[in-house]
Specification:
Strand content: 15-25%
Oligomer: single chain
Number of helices: 14
Order of helices and strands: HHHHHHEEEHEHEHEEEEHHHHH
Largest sheet: 9 strands, mixed
Radius of gyration: 23 Å
Distance between the termini: 18 Å
Structural class: alpha+beta
Helix content: 40-55%
Strand order of the largest sheet: 3-2-1-4-5-9-8-7-6
Number of strands: 9
Number of domains: 2
């Protein structure tokens, strides 16, 4: 990714259409965008911080930006990103990711949603926005994201996000909200496999799957084709045993023809030990994968990388849930800028620092910041 970073980041985003009226423009759109990305890389979490960073680093930015009228004010940043088309910014983001991050066959692509809690606006009755993101677990990058107005709209957002992603040869994992026949069909049509979490909202199918595993785990018949795999983990004073089972598709399972290429059923039992207390949770899945319990266990486990490596990091390191940016398209566009910054930080292997400390280092060290953005210092 290092060698392609300059052209990919700057050249791809130069294609953004500027929504502003010409006579009102004092700052080039690419200047506004690059300053914002660099500022967010270095710890800025709002437009005032972006302006402050830009002014502190004006001499550095002047090495490669025109800055005909200096550094934009925080109000200018806010107005520009409030009117900038999020669809256009998303398109540039996708082209950039396609240029720098090749998604390999067999990789797990996890899709999940996150609500930007402070993006609601009581005065205008504007609900908090909900972003659905796709996370490439091997590349450790966000491949794309799409806004919905409510969590329930993930059902319509997921197909739209999948349309713009190349997931051929991959394993797409989605939680119970995306366990829909049409989504399974679309994943198969895009030449990928799926692992979908199954919950009681699909009452008939869920009950049938639960029954299949109850019968299979209490019989010795070889015809059941039941596979099992167990892992154990100790971390932060908590122990967890995960027991995985997969069962080849039984010929008499209800509704199986309605699900595209449904080949296997999966079950995970998590036994957690914390401070003397023991809790057990069972989860069920349907998948187009063959009956390979270790492959299933890997897909299910790595799916949670989107929670730990994306959502949690955005909350803790980027303070996303504290963001009060609400004007126009500002919340959605700022979310995309965070994803750009997170991808750049994730792809850096020159230091073993965490995301928070990488942001600090980028703010202190111009050479390191240039390496993040361009692939080399200057």
């Amino acid at each position: 990714m290092e060698e392609q970073r300059s052209a990919a980041l700057l050249e791809h985003f130069r294609e953004l259409a500027d929504p502003r009226i010409d006579r009102h423009k004092e700052h080039k759109l690419i200047d506004v965008l690059v300053i914002a990305i660099c500022a967010i890389l270095c710890g800025a979490n709002d437009w005032v911080a972006v302006e402050t960073f830009g002014k502190a680093k004006r001499a550095w930015f002047a090495c490669f930006l025109e800055l005909a009228h200096g550094i934009p004010s925080h109000d200018t940043f806010g107005r520009v990103f409030a009117v900038l088309s999020p669809e256009s910014l998303q398109t540039c983001f996708l082209r950039w990711m396609q240029a720098v991050a090749q998604v390999t066959a067999g990789q797990v692509v996890a899709i999940d949603g996150k609500t930007l809690r402070r993006s609601y606006d009581r005065r205008s009755a504007k609900a908090a926005i909900h972003m659905v993101s796709a996370w490439a677990t091997h590349n450790r990058v966000v491949l794309g994201q799409l806004k919905t107005e409510e969590k329930s709209n993930e059902i319509t957002a997921i197909p739209e996000l999948l349309k713009v992603l190349d997931v051929s040869g991959c394993i797409v994992t989605i939680d119970a909200m995306g366990c829909q026949k049409a989504i399974a069909q679309q994943i198969v049509e895009q030449e990928a496999d799926y692992v979908l979490a199954l919950k009681p909202n699909h009452a008939t199918l869920y009950a049938a799957v639960v029954q299949q595993f109850q019968e299979a785990r209490h019989t010795t018949s070889e015809a059941r084709t039941l596979q099992s795999y167990e892992t154990e983990e100790q971390q932060h004073g908590r122990g967890e045993i995960r027991r995985h089972w997969t069962l080849e598709m039984p010929p008499d399972l209800v509704q199986q023809e309605a699900w595209a290429q449904l080949r296997c059923l999966g079950m995970v039992e998590s036994e957690r030990h914390l401070k003397g207390a023991v809790t057990i949770e069972q989860r069920y899945y349907i998948t187009s994968l063959p009956n390979d319990v270790k492959q299933f266990a890997h897909a299910v486990r790595t799916h949670w990388g989107i929670e730990n490596c994306v959502h949690w990091v955005l909350d803790v390191a980027f303070r996303e849930d504290d963001s009060r940016i609400r004007l126009g398209h500002g919340p959605e566009n700022f979310a995309v800028l965070r994803h750009i910054a997170l991808n750049l930080l994730r792809q850096d292997t020159s230091t073993k620092l965490g995301i928070h400390n990488k942001r600090l280092k980028a703010g202190w060290d111009d050479a390191y910041l240039a390496t993040l953005v361009f692939g080399h210092p200057f």
